[in-house]
Specification:
With 129 residues, this protein is mostly helical. The chain is built from four helices and no strands. Bound molecules: zinc ion (2 copies).
Length: 129
């Protein structure tokens, strides 16, 4: 294959390109299959039709904690807990974040229950006296 950083031909199993020192699939300048120049945003090689591989983009882009999911986890801690177990291997960052928000939501719920419980006792006491 070709190094996606500098376009040099490298061994298929090479960890790092021998001519530029970058991981061959970490670059965005050349097609890994035919060595044609590519642009950063390009997904397919226009010359050979091969899907352009990019190690850097793939892993990081998908593991972004989502605000909406965190909010859901905060309102429904059980959802956060389930997502945490589903994600903990593939998306450790999102899992950690969703777990944190589930904990916050859980504590908030407990506090609210405790508060309404005490308020209930208080209003009953006031009712009897
Ligand atoms: Zn290179
Ligand atoms: Zn190509």
């Amino acid at each position: 294959m070709y190094c996606r950083e500098c376009g040099n031909s490298v061994n298929d199993r090479a960890e790092v390109c021998s001519s530029c020192g970058v991981r061959p699939l970490n670059g965005q300048n050349f097609c890994q299959s035919c060595g044609t120049e590519t642009k950063a945003a390009q997904e397919l090689c226009t010359k050979c039709g091969e899907r352009l591989k990019n190690l850097k983009g793939a892993g990081v882009g998908q593991d972004q904690p989502s605000g909406l999911v965190n909010l859901a986890a905060c309102c429904f801690p059980i959802v956060g807990l389930i997502l945490y177990f589903v994600w903990k291997d593939e998306k450790p960052k999102s899992a950690k974040s969703v777990c944190k928000w589930a904990a916050i939501g859980f504590i908030a719920t407990v506090v609210l229950y405790a508060l309404s419980f005490f308020l209930g006792i208080l209003s009953e006491t006031m009712y009897y006296y």
